[in-house]
Amino acid sequence: MENPASWTWTAYAAVWLSILALFLFSRNLRKKKLNLPPGPKPWPIIGNLNLIGSLPHQSLHQLSQKYGPLMHLQFGSFPIVVGSSVEMAKIFLKTMDVNFVSRPKTAAGKYTTYNYSNITWSPYGPYWRQARKMCIMELFSARRLDSYEYIRVEEMNSLFKELFKSAGKPILLKDYLSTVSLNVISRMVLGKRYLDESDNSIVSPEEFKKMLDELFLLNGVFNIGDSIPYIDFLDLQGYIKRMKVLSKKFDRFLEHVLDEHNAKRKATENYVSKDMVDVLLELADDPNLEVKLERHGVKAFTQDLLAGGTESSAVTVEWAISELLKKPEIFNKAREELDRVIGRKRWVQEEDIPSLPYIESIVKETMRLHPVAPMLVPRLSREDCKVGGYDIQKGTRVLVNVWTIGRDPTVWEKANEFCPERFIGKEIDVKGQDFELLPFGSGRRMCPGYSLGLKVIQASLANLLHGFKWKLADDMTPENLNMEEIFGLSTPRKYPLTAVVEPCLPLDLY
Q: For residues 451-465, b (16+ Cβ closer than 10 Å) or e, as one string?
C-alpha cells in the first residue's frame, strides 16, 4: 500500500509545479499580446548583449539600419528601446519627456556618485527636481557665469603662453585642453586651482586627471552586472572593484575641499559665497529646502560639476582641430573670418562669438559628427505607454542614439562629410530645441551646464585658430590621420592628436 505521507508530498509538488507552469504560461501569453518594436531575437540569459561591440553606439547604429528608428532589444534581464531618428528623439525627450525622465540604476550610479546623489544619475523625484532648480537658478545662471568670465579669460591666456613655449615641437593637444578646462572649472567650482604643483593639495594634478578619466570610463562602460543582476556579485569585468577604489579617492579629495570651505565660512562674519561649493554649502544650510541637501549630496554635486565641465569641452575642441587638419580649406575660411572680424591685434572675446558664424558652424558640425555622449545618458520608462503604435513597458531602459541622428542621410546631405557650411544661414542650435542636433540632450534631463560648455568650446577653438598655425606632426598627411574613437561616458579620439603649433599674432600678445 502507498505511503500516504509520500503521496501527500508528491501531490503538493505536482500542484506547485502546475501553478508555476500556469504562471509562466500566462506570463508568456501576456508577453505575446505586447506589440513590441522590431528588433533582433534575444538569446537566453544574455539577451542581445552578444551584438554589442566595443563601440556600442556604432553597434546600435548598424542594428537600426536593419530594424528601424525605434528598436527593441534585451540586455540580459532588461528590455531596451533605442530611438535613432529626429522623430523618436522628439517623442522621448519632449512629447513624452515626463514618462522617460528617470534614470536606470547602475553600478556606476551607486558606487561613483554617492548612491545616485548627483545631478546626472539621481532618479526622478523631489531630490532631482530640487537639484535641477539649483543648477538653473544658482549654479549656471547667466549672472553667475558672466561673473566668472575673468577666470575663463585668465586660464585661456595661460593656455596661449604654454602653447607659445612649445612652438615648433610636437604636442599632445588633449593634455593642454584638459588642463585649461580643469583649471577653469576648478576655479569656478572650488575657488582656486587645487591642482597647482605649488599647492600642497591632497591630490597631484596627474592623479586628479587620471581620476576624471577613470570616472568617465566607468560611467560609460557596459557593466554586465547592470544587465544580469544575479551575477553582479561576481564582478566579472572588475569594474565594481575599480569603482569602489575611485570612490574612495574622490571622497578623500572632496572631504578636504568641504572642510577647507567650511573653515573659511566660519572664520568670516557675513561670508559672501565666492564659488560653486560655497553656494552649495549655503543651500545645504537653508532650512526651507524641500529636501535637505546632505553633505554627501554636496560632494556628489561638486564631483558632477568638476567632471562634466572638464571632459566635454576638451574632447570637442580636439575633434574640431582634427577635422580641420584633414580639411585645410576649412581652416583657411575660419582664419579669414577671424582676421576680418577680430583683426590681428587682439584675442577673441566671448562677446565676439555671435559675430563669427563660421566658427559657430564648425563647432556645430563637430558636435554633429562627434557628440561627446553619443547615446546621451540612459533614461527609464516610468509607466507603460505606446510610442509609434508600439508598447513600451514600465522599467524599459531608453537610449537616444544622437550619433545615428547626426548621420541620417534623410536629415543631412553628405552626412558623413565634415561640412560646416551646412549650418550657415540656418537657425539650428544646440540648445535642445532642434532635434537633429542634440549634443547636450533635451528636455528636463538636458545637461544643465550646456551654456558654460558652449562658451568654453567656442572661445577656445576660436582663439586656437586665431593665434596659431597648425600642422600634423612627424610628416603625417591629412589622409593618414586616424579618426577612430573610444567609448565611455564621453567619446574621445582613440589616438590623441599630436600636432605642431606656430604663433601667428604679434609676439607681445603671448
A: ebbbbbbbbbbbbbb
Q: Are strands 390-392 and 385-387 parallel, antiparallel or unpaired?
A: antiparallel
- Strands 397-400 and 78-83, by their bridges, are parallel
Q: How far apart are CA 102 and CA 107, in angstroms?
A: 16
Distance, in Å, from the CA atom of 96 to the CA atom of 35, rounded to the nearest integer, reads 19
Q: How far is CA 332 from CA 101, 404, 416, 469, in A?
A: 43, 29, 21, 10
What does 364-433 look like in DSSP terms, one character per residue?
HHHHHHS-SSTT-S-EE--S-EEETTEEE-TT-EEEE-HHHHTT-TTTSTTTTS--GGGGTT----SSSS
Using an 8 Å Cβ cutoff, are 118 and 434 in contact? Answer: no
Sequence letter at residue 276: M
Distances from the Cα of 151 to the Cα of 38, 184, 468, angstroms = 51, 6, 22
Question: What's the pLDDT tens digit per position in 48-93?
Answer: 999 999 999 999 999 999 999 999 999 999 999 999 999 999 999 9
How buried is residue 37: exposed, middle or buried, by Cβ count under 10 Å (0-12/13-18/19+)? Answer: buried
What's the N-to-C CA distance of the chain in angstroms? Answer: 103
- Three-class secondary structure of residue 73 per DSSP: strand
Domain spans of the chain, in order of start: 37-509
Q: Which CATH superfamily is domain 37-509 in?
A: Cytochrome P450 (1.10.630.10)
Provide the 3-class DSSP secondary structure of residue 499.
strand
Report CA-CA distances (Å) from 326 to 331, 388, 418, 444.
9, 40, 9, 37
CA distances from 267 to 170, 194, 270 (A): 48, 20, 10
Q: Which amino acid, one-letter code, is at 428? A: I
pLDDT of 83-109, one tens digit each? 999 999 999 999 999 999 999 999 999
Per the document, the length of the chain is 510
Predicted confidence (pLDDT) per residue in 329-375, tens digit: 999 999 999 999 999 999 999 999 999 999 999 999 999 999 999 99
User: In this structure, what is the dihedral angle of CA atoms 178, 181, 184, 190, given to the nearest 10 degrees?
Assistant: -70
CA nearest to 145, candidates 346, 351, 318, 365 = 351
Return the half-sphere exposure (C-beta side, CA atoms, 13 A cut-off) of residue 351: 3
> Per the annotation, does 447 bind a ligand?
yes
